Amino acid sequence: MQTTIKHAVTFTGVGLHKGEPVRMTIGPADRDQGILFLRTDVIGRNPLVPARWDLVKPSKLCTEVENDDGVGVSTIEHVMAALAGCGIHNALISIDGPEAPILDGSSRPFVARILKAGLVEQDAPVRCIEVLAAVEVREGEAWARLEPAKALEIDFAIDFADAAIGRQRKRLTLANGSFVRELSDCRTFCRQADVETMQANGLALGGTYDNAVVFDGADVLSPGGLRRADEPVRHKMLDAVGDLAVAGAPILGRYVGNRAGHAMTNWLLRTLFATPGAWRYVECDDAQREVLPGVGVHADEIPALV
To answer: Which of the four pLDDT bands, split at 50, 70 and 90, describes residue 305?
Structure first.
């Protein structure tokens, strides 16, 4: 059965890159609609923007979708990850600006409010994307691959010169609420030198120590330090879940990433869909539905903040 949110929930905050105030409401949607953004501030152009892989604009800093009228919404990866991790297939997201609110830099605030609002099953089967053959993309030392697996798995590695990050790797099967328990609270991160460069170029204007983990060599500058010892690689996995969610249906396959980012993951999806015989749509049977992200998740599984 497909799923939507039971009651609408509203979030207010600022966008990470533009730093502008924004109000965003996640509401119910009809079956088979998918995830749609509605720009309530747009007049005279099509305000509806589907969260779809072929509408993603190339960007290494975030995931942005844009319709044929040039209307877009950026930095959607955290809310998309939350929706996928909670098992929501259909939602209408009304937003009064061009960028989703960053909140605390993770998916946890979205997950908490979504699960509190409740979910509703819809009388329609879940269609999944089954990966049948491996596809891979590479750029320098960065690469990403999708390969066959019975459930969505993420295997991610990062490597930074900063001693506080270093090389980290983690593998996780996104079944039985694993996203909510293991990834949802992990925040976006950056290096202090990168923050200064981005802000000098008019980016990351909404970034603070409260909505991102900022590293400087061996030091963690954000108050309270890390939520988890390997929070950076877990956040990269969170991003991957959100970036894969624009495929338009849950993926049955293993995503392996090494230093991969938003643009590379979208490139990988485009490669998958352009490769004959590498994938197919399947109507999920009972066994497949049981391993989809979000199935059986409960609000008491949300990590507590300390």
So the answer is: low
Q: What is the CATH number of domain 2-122?
A: 3.30.230.20
Residues of the chain with CATH 3.30.1700.10: 127-301
Q: Does domain 127-301 have CATH number 3.30.1660.10?
A: no
Q: Is the pLDDT of residue 23 over 90?
A: yes
Which residues of the chain form CATH 3.30.230.20? Answer: 2-122
Task: Give the global pTM.
Answer: 0.95
The catalytic residue positions are 262
Place of tokens 């049981």: 290
